[in-house]
Amino acid sequence: ALDTNNFFVICTNVLSGCYGTTGPSAKNPNTGIEYGTTFPLTTVEDIVTAQFLLLDDLGIQRLHTSIGASLGGMQANMAAALFPERVGRIISISSCVKSHPSSIAMRYVQRR
Question: What is the dihedral of CA 43, 45, 47, 52, to 10 degrees?
């Protein structure tokens, strides 16, 4: 359990995800149709870099722990790789450093 009496918990939306940021399902203002496959690719590195820009704006220099599962776990791994001096520890649950296209396809099929 996360003890919110001792620690602040910060949760962010995923950059280019469907909740809170512009993503592939958003309408392109130049065409009036959804971006779809024309939307720029976003990497885990992009997501984590945006998260640390947020931390900078909040005045947070160091995280006690970066925690995540699946894609969130990949973000925790990337945070430690990109900003080792700013991440005290990571908890990466059911995650990997890199996904193979076939595993991405399998997870897509499993959600159907």
Answer: -170
Sign of CA dihedral 90, 54, 18, 11: positive
- Per-residue pLDDT tens digits for 72-110: 999 999 999 999 999 999 999 988 887 788 887 887 788
Question: Do 63 and 88 touch, CB atoms closer than 8 A?
Answer: yes
Cα–Cα distances (Å) from 31 to 19, 20, 44, 72, in that order, read 22, 21, 28, 33
- For the whole model, what pTM was predicted? 0.83
Single-letter amino acid, residue 97: V
The HSE-up count of residue 104 (CA atoms within 13 Å, CB side) is: 5
Assigned token pair, 23: 């993503």
69-3-78 Cα angle (round to 5): 30
